[in-house]
Amino acid sequence: MRSVVFSRHGPAPDVVTLADRPRPRPGAGELLVRMTARPVNPSDELFIEGRYGRRPTLPAVPGFEGVGTVEETTTGGPAVGQRVAVAAQGTWQEYVAVPAADVVPVPDRLADSAACQLTVNPLTALLLTRELALRDGDWLLITAAGSALSRMVLHLAYRTGVRCVCVVRNRGHDDDLTRAGAAAVINTAVEDLVARVREVTGGEGVHATLDAVGGELGTAAIQCLRDGGQAVVLGMFDGGTLALTPHTLVFRSITVRGFWLPHIVSKQTAEVLAELSKHAVELLSTPDFAAPVAATYDLADVATALDHVRQPGRRGKVILTG
């Protein structure tokens, strides 16, 4: 079978190759799934670069989610022929053998381009909004607001009356974010983030921040918090450090914590995960929740796909098919 592999860490487009590997055989309690589509997520690039929360044994196959069809089963779970979303390492290949607990049956109404995004961003957005527990009228600042995950968080927050300040680096996303419910869109290429947030919130600052960038922007986002505010860090697009003093933590009662989906998921019960997955399917079935597709590429063109992901101003997900 065709597999995308990397044998060393480095910039993703430079280190991935296409290889022929044996088709896996499902063990007890496992399914053999013929994969058909997988999104390229930021976590995939971090994994390839060696900056993710878990280090693989090389050579390794990237990819943490996707969609496909069950071809063999050794369990009483989904039947042969059932389309399923897969949450497992190594989805950037034609076949995966996974425990039945790692798949979610998907309805016919969900296209592969949406179903392949089921198990990472929607669950992250649902868990984040639950963890923040913001109320109607509260302010939430979101960096990297043009990303698929940020738009999902915006969708959920807006529905509960939370006012969102969306932070971007170019004007290409302004109209879309405003239509999606953003109370304000701030372009840090031409605007001072802290000053604009003070203006937008009447000098009070925001109740919470979600930061996927880090570095100077992540630091500025924390400075936008009001006393008693909470900052959640869930990404590292910048790769830089956050500058934070004990004075800020102690005298302003600011809370800063990280969010890593595998760690959070590991603490949930099977019942909670089933409920979250059901909710994610419902959300992906609604207009404008799933990220639009920027482009699709065959597995053989993975390096080109990864170059596309890095294009400034990209709108939508890059999907690997085949």
CATH topology name of the largest domain = Quinone Oxidoreductase, Chain A, domain 1
Mean pLDDT: 94
Q: What series of H and E elements makes up the topology?
A: EHEEHEEEEHHEHEHEHEHEHEHHEHE
Oligomer: single chain
Strand-residue fraction?
25-35%
Count of runs of 4 or more consecutive helical residues: 12
CATH superfamily annotation of the largest domain: Medium-chain alcohol dehydrogenases, catalytic domain
Rg, Cα atoms, Å? 20 Å
Percentage of residues assigned to helices:
25-40%
Q: Provide the CATH top-level class of the largest domain.
A: Alpha Beta
Main β sheet profile: 7 strands, mixed
**Uncertain regions spanning at least 5 consecutive residues:** none
- Please give the domain count: 2
Approximate shape: globular
Task: Assign the CATH architecture of the largest domain.
Answer: Alpha-Beta Complex
Look at the helices and sheets and give the structural class: alpha/beta
Overall strand count: 15
Distance between the termini: 11 Å
Describe, in plain words, how this protein is organized in 3D.
This protein is an alpha/beta fold and about 325 residues long. The protein folds into 2 domains: about 1-115 and about 290-320, Medium-chain alcohol dehydrogenases, catalytic domain (Quinone Oxidoreductase, Chain A, domain 1, Alpha-Beta Complex); about 120-265, 3-Layer(aba) Sandwich (Rossmann fold). It has 12 helices and 15 strands. It has helices at about 10-15, 40-50, 110-115, 120-130, 150-160, 175-180, 195-200, 215-225, 245-250, 260-265, 270-285, 300-310, and strands spanning about 1-5, 15-20, 30-40, 65-75, 85, 95-100, 105, 140, 165-170, 185, 205-210, 225-235, 255-260, 295-300, 315-320. The strands form 3 sheets. Strands 3, 4, 5, 6, 7, 14 and 15 form a 7-stranded mixed sheet that branches. α12 links the parallel β14 (about 295-300) and β15. The N and C termini lie close together (about 10 Å). The model has no long low-confidence stretch (mean pLDDT about 95).
